[in-house]
Design goal:
Layout lengths: L12 E3 L15 E6 L5 E16 L11 E12 L4 E8 L2 E4 L11 E5 L7 E2 L2 E12 L2 E11 L13 E6 L3 E10 L2 E11 L3
Parallel strand pairs: 1-4
Antiparallel strand pairs: 2-3, 2-13, 3-4, 4-5, 5-6, 6-7, 8-9, 9-10, 10-11, 11-12, 12-13
């Protein structure tokens, strides 16, 4: 099978993954086990597949010119054992989205991690809420943890049923999740054990 350009003069510009996302490019064989902090129920998240490639993003909007952009992405297929559901984390630029696709200008997913952003910055219902120097979770100590807030009504893709706080550590991934159920009630899940392959 040969690959031939339809227009040999057409040039692409490239949008590569930020180096800040390299510690989140988990491979097959990675898994995380979480414990509900109230009930003790366990949930496992497993990497079932990955894809590392480029998609082509055309100039958007009428009258816009410029060469199409080849956007690098890394897609992590995941399986949630407790809820028996498949989902993905989609890495592009300096963000990770939930259930994004390589479909050009649409369906980029709901942002869950904003890397290289400042505290308070927001994008499509995700806010970099804080950076914690140290976070202790289940007798494990994590450093430089990024605390993200998913703001339920501002989501561009409805992936979370409530306001949710997500805590990410480099080379580990999600270490804690807190779901704001309202009226001061929270459902909290903490990382218990994990195996990460990068």
């Amino acid at each position: 099978m040969s690959c031939k350009k339809d227009n040999p003069t057409e040039q692409y510009s490239y949008d590569y993954l930020s180096a800040s996302l390299k510690p989140f490019m988990f491979k097959n064989g990675s898994y995380w086990v979480y414990e509900n902090d109230t009930t003790g129920i366990l949930d496992s998240i497993l990497v079932t597949g990955t894809k590392h490639d480029f998609f082509i993003q055309s100039p958007t909007g009428p009258g816009q010119t410029g060469s199409p952009v080849k956007v690098e992405y890394y897609k992590i297929e995941l399986y949630d054992a407790l809820n028996a559901i498949n989902f993905n984390d989609f890495l592009l630029g300096a963000i990770i989205t939930r259930n994004g696709t390589e479909n050009g200008n649409s369906h980029m997913g709901q942002p869950i991690l904003l890397s290289n952003f400042y505290i308070g910055d927001k994008l499509n219902g995700a806010q970099l809420f804080d950076t914690l120097a140290i976070l202790n979770v289940n007798n494990n100590t994590f450093h430089e943890v990024q605390e993200m807030k998913i703001i339920y009504p501002e989501q561009t893709q409805n992936e979370f049923a409530h306001d949710t706080y997500l805590y990410f550590a480099d080379s580990i991934g999600l270490v804690k999740k807190e779901i704001d159920l309202g009226n001061g009630n929270f459902e909290s899940w903490s990382l218990k054990r994990w195996r990460v392959i990068l």
